[in-house]
Amino acid sequence: MWTAASVFLGVFVALASAGLVDRAQDAVDAARYPLVKGPLRIELYISRLDTNGKSHTGLSCDITDKCDPTVIAFIDTERPNHDFGGDSVPYSSYITIFDGREVDVPQIDKTISRDVCTGKSVRKVALRVRAIDKDTFNDDKIDNYKCFITGDHTPAENERAAEWSEEIACSGEDRKQSKVYLKYRWYYIPDTQCRPSSNGRTIFSGMFSNNGLACILPEIRYTMATTFVQFLLLALLAAFTSGGLIDRAQDLVDTRYPLRQGPIRIEMHVIRLDTRGKSHTGLWCDITDKCDPTVIAFIDTERPNHDFGGDSVPYSNYITLFDGNNVDVPEIGKTISRDICGKGVRKVSLRIRAIDKDTFNDDKIDNYKCHITGESTPAENEQSSDWSPEVACKGEDRPTSKVFIKWRWYYIPETECRPSSNGRTFFSGMFS
Fold first, then answer.
1. Which of 135, 151, 210, 395 is deepest in the core (most CB within 10 A)?
2. Are residues 32 and 165 in the same domain?
3. What is the pTM (predicted TM-score) of this model?
């Protein structure tokens, strides 16, 4: 007879669905390849795909015509050894680089990129490409393709010094005769230019894949399975409503703003912070000295009305702009940016957070937020874009504390767009 422990064992197996083989390979890579630390940029250029006119089964895509391929790609810096799909990167996070009809060898010629920012590092990067044959009734996989960059290949000092690799043929996982041809390069970048992103996995991404919970539930007594499903539904409800009705109501109100469709680049220049020498409580940062501020920032294109923290953007995804001691009005003078690729926005939140470092316990100085809305038309390109006038964003707890910023946004070529996310996971806002 199955017990409640069996259910939790099933959950454990599901959450460990990456498999021992993948984890063993991670361990091998840790011993073999040097660790490469950010900030660095990885660029992947996909030149063409050769389908051989067949799907992954070996059958022709079409009896009378050629394949109708859609090709998507992703640079995986987090789970390079894991299987395609939810166990590594949900397909919804991939970038579409080709969508055509009646072509067996599509010429793609598209470049995508991804950054590894300060505080993170890689030993191995998976360059993932997936091709699908579109059909009237049911799309069929052509194949999945994966090549690697490893830490034994040193990144270039900067973009100007970076050279493209030789053209590489990545064979299909199911049919080795099918290949995608690509080149890559990677190079170090200034910290202020780094755009943090994630694979977009949630806690349940890999649960129903190869070794997940689907293999276990049939053997659990019906009542236990029902209870577990009810628990999952309650967890889903809590997670999806964690943003709060007020935030969601504001989202509806904001539909009054015009929708600005990407590809667009948003830049925020943080000029200075005026702490007034106090934390968010109104008490002095230090009895005898000034504040010891750390200032972090993020451009939020996904949840602009939501609260600071896990409900909008985990603080681990923010970019550090300033880290100093004994200064109440730090001059920052740093610029960060974020791109909108294949999506539209009506409102963007420019978020800044300041912390007063202390020997025993860091204290919040304040959170600051200003907005860009679709009422402001993005410039045609970078050359024609002007910076906004200086804007004073007030602290949420103490409006007398302010951060001074400027911003601009402008359209960019699709090939230059760098997709990213807020980096939220399933439970990010559940306990906020």
1. 395
2. yes
3. 0.52
